[in-house]
Amino acid sequence: MNKSNISNEIIDQLKVIVGENNFIDDVKNMNAYLSDWRNHFSGISPLILKPTSTKIVSEILAICNKNSVQVVPQGGNTGLVGGSVPSASGDEVIISLEKMNTILDIDPVNYTMTVEAGCILSNIQDTALKKNRIFPLSLAAEGSCQIGGNLATNAGGTGVLHYGNAKELVLGLEVVLADGSIINSLKQLRKDNTGYDVKQLFMGSEGTLGIITKAVIKLFPVTENNVSSILALPNIESTVNALANLRVKTGDSITAFEYMDKNCIDLLMKQLKVNDIFNKKYNHYALVELSSSRKGDNLLALLEDAISNSIESGDIIDAIVASNESQSVQFWNFRESLPDLLKTNGDFVTFDISVPISKLKELIEKAEKICAQLPLNLKSYIFGHIGDGNLHYYLFNSEEEFSNEFFKIKDKIKSSLYDLTMQLDGSYSAEHGIGQAKKSELKKYCSQSEIELMQLIKKTLDPKNIMNPGKVL
Ligand SMILES: Cc1cc2nc3c(=O)[nH]c(=O)nc-3n(C[C@H](O)[C@H](O)[C@H](O)COP(=O)(O)OP(=O)(O)OC[C@H]3O[C@@H](n4cnc5c(N)ncnc54)[C@H](O)[C@@H]3O)c2cc1C
Which CATH class, in words, describes the domain spanning 103-221? Predict the structure, then answer.
């Protein structure tokens, strides 16, 4: 029975629009759509719609707008800030893009691919590879997240250092606005200065301005060589110095530089039941990858030479270079297992923060001091895309009997670490977005004039506030 304020009549109209087998109205089958990956946010909904075309998305939104029915766009539901999850009101319809998953066109000469928004990221990567091209957006959730969700969150991931964030990888977009009108800007152009770059409005808009239905994305030449290595480093300052030096010495061939601290490595070794990477334990580690699209490039020699140079200067203490593809896969498996392992490691607060790379040392040192002054003994796990100045900083309460105390001081920890990050000219949300999780930080740290401009944009595109209400603003 429908217990929401949305009338049965409208629910029935929406079901007819999507057609049989393209909706869920039975609560028993909705679980996967109602809470987020970490189970930090959950809600309810009377109806999940799975449109199969842009026209259908447009018809859904036209009806919803006319009747002031609120909608939550949903991709792979891997977002980490509660943006894809409905509220507890029961008055929001979920629009899942999962059935709009066709790769419409691949143009290897133009280095572009045109895709529907519900395409899973790893399927896009695989399709590009078959044509000797790559789509370089890469993140641990790539087997489930969708390109529409990647663009709506302006996802980062491990390739940003070389290829940029999602918004730098898109050339054209098709979007359905709140009133059902379709903005078709599926351009395949690298140069197009014809007025405002409207598509960029939707990058990172988290479903609050419209539903992305199709996109033209950029491809790159296939990687012919790559080599990866795990580095042991004496401290954070040396870590960023090593990166700066390796970039020069390798002719800027570094395509990833991922940091992991000692606690992360200890957790990985224990949970994945593998021996220590080195014979000794170190405090700081980085996974570095070099890639090249030139066939004859000897990246191994280039990397070994660059590492030797940094060992001489004292910025690197030790290094293991992957001797074959399977060792390289193992190194990446370490890094990519971390979010999952940490999720089940106990009660935590987590930060997705960034600062200019040159200020990372100050950030970590000052954060450690702040944590040392707290009444609880917290254990930190720090990893992330350090090449982009982006850290994922987890703080765990290691003693269960203090869980109430931990709960009470979580907000204080958050505000201290976010204040610190902002003092260092950083960001309190480097790549995951605002969603429900960081609305108060947006209010606190964003200038009034910027918030007013965002509100103006929102009001212009979605005057009835039906698009993902309660998220971002
Ligand atoms: C293990 C793991 C690792 C991760 N690693 C990274 C990482 O390295 N870098 C990173 O940036 N993120 C990372 N994330 C976060 C997440 O995967 C990304 O934010 C991803 O881009 C979300 O895509 P999705 O399809 O799952 O979107 P969802 O979670 O379904 O939605 C995210 C937001 O986008 C909106 N949305 C979804 N689809 C559309 C659409 N078609 N049109 C309009 N709005 C839409 C939703 O309303 C919501 O606000 C990780 C998550 C996990 C679980």
Answer: alpha beta
How are beta strands 210-218 and 170-177 bridged, if at all? antiparallel
Q: Is residue 372 over pLDDT 70? A: yes
- Domains 225-341 and 346-423 fall in the same CATH topology: yes
- The three-state secondary structure class of 85 is coil
Q: Which of 402, 387, 392, 109 is nearest to 252 (CA)?
A: 387
Which top CATH class is 346-423?
Answer: alpha beta
Alpha-carbon gap, residue 352 to 391, rounded angstroms = 6
Beta carbon of 149 within 6 Å of any ligand 1 atom: yes
Between the CA of 365 and the centroid of ligand 1 the distance, in Å, is 30
- Domain limits, the chain: 8-96, 103-221, 225-341, 346-423
Q: Any idea which fold 225-341 has? A: Alpha-Beta Plaits (3.30.70)
82 lines ligand 1 (CB under 6 A): no
Owner of token pair 């990172």? 204
Burial class (CB in 10 A: 0-12, 13-18, 19+), 76: buried
Any ligand 1 atom below 6 A from CB of 78:
yes
Any ligand 1 atom below 6 A from CB of 75: yes
CA angle 88, 94, 98 (to 5 degrees): 140
Would the CB of 118 count as within 6 Å of ligand 1? no
- Closest ligand 1 atom number to CA of residue 158: 8
Q: CA 372, 376, 377, 382: dihedral to nearest 10 degrees?
A: -70
**Which CATH number applies to 8-96: 1.20.950.20, 3.30.43.10, 3.40.50.150, 1.10.10.10?**
3.30.43.10
* pLDDT, tens digit (0-9, with 9 covering 90-100), for 117-142: 999 999 999 999 999 999 999 999 99
195-230 tens-digit pLDDT? 999 999 999 999 999 999 999 999 999 999 999 999
